[in-house]
Amino acid sequence: MKPARFVSAVLLLLFTLVPALQPPADAQRPTAPDDRYAGLQWRFVRIRYHFASEGTRVPQDFYGDPWGIDAPAAEQNLSRRIKTATAIQVEDPILLALDDPRLFENPWIYFVEPSSMRLQESEIPILREFLLRGGHAMMDDFHGPYEWDAFSREMKRLFPDREIVEIPKDHPVFDAFYKIDGYPQVAGLGSFLQGRTWERGGVMPHLRTILDDNGRPMMFINWNTDMGDGWEWSNVDQYPGYIKHTSTAYRMAINEIIYALTH
């Protein structure tokens, strides 16, 4: 979303200060919610992490802190979508640091641009315990081999004895709610406007994970795809051709979230 990130930062301020400017709640609303998962509770918990260029003057190709990219529209829109498409009880989105004691009150957390993340030594045992105790993390919006290497180094610090593995094509996450044939690539808006779906050399999308001792995916690692952009820009009518990516982003995210909440 590089060309659009300054606009995103401005929208973050407007969304916060002027509620009337928020997207309409009925965007892409289904006719009726599916009640298969009535009784489940979920909220969008965005993680505010420490990052590589924090406190420096190193130039970045986006505006603001990497953990806040696509906020607040991404979580607002995804929360509305889950509330209208499913019977899950959806709470308001929140922002947490890893050392916030409220972390363990939530089963699901979200990291955007996780290749920028630099875990503090004090945070590593907290996140490790959260995941091993049944929590789940979604990693989203990082691309290409350089960013993969940076991300995988942090995961090796988090779980030095566990490997990152590919989610197979027949995994039940692909039909947890919607039937999805293969892992999709959601184009960031900037890439879409340039006529392609990929960025930073990340041509092929991958869904990967780290498993716990029982074989449960503790995270869904969405590499070479940008679901956050799909949620963020779903209600912006000046890009009508982008709707195919917003639809895909919603469907894959809902599958991943429902799988995480039920396993």
Blueprint (SSEs and pairs):
Elements: H1 5-17, E1 41-42, E2 45-47, H2 73-85, E3 89-90, E4 94-96, E5 108-112, H3 124-132, E6 136-142, H4 144-158, E7 165-166, H5 189-193, E8 206-209, E9 219-223, H6 227-232, H7 243-262
Question: Your description of this structure?
Answer:
It contains seven helices and nine strands, in the order H-E-E-H-E-E-E-H-E-H-E-H-E-E-H-H. It is of the alpha/beta class and 263 residues long. It has one domain: 3-Layer(aba) Sandwich (Rossmann fold). Strands 5-6-9-8-7 form a five-stranded mixed sheet. The radius of gyration is 17 Å and the shape is globular. The two termini are 32 Å apart.
CATH-assigned fold name? Rossmann fold
- Spatial sequence of strands, sheet with the most strands: 5-6-9-8-7
Beta-strand content bin = 5-15%
- Rg of Cα set: 17 Å
- Could you tell me the number of beta strands? 9
SSE succession: HEEHEEEHEHEHEEHH
The CATH C-level class name: Alpha Beta
What summary fits the major beta sheet? 5 strands, mixed
For the record, the CATH architecture stands as: 3-Layer(aba) Sandwich
Mean of residue pLDDT values: 87
The total number of structural domains is: 1
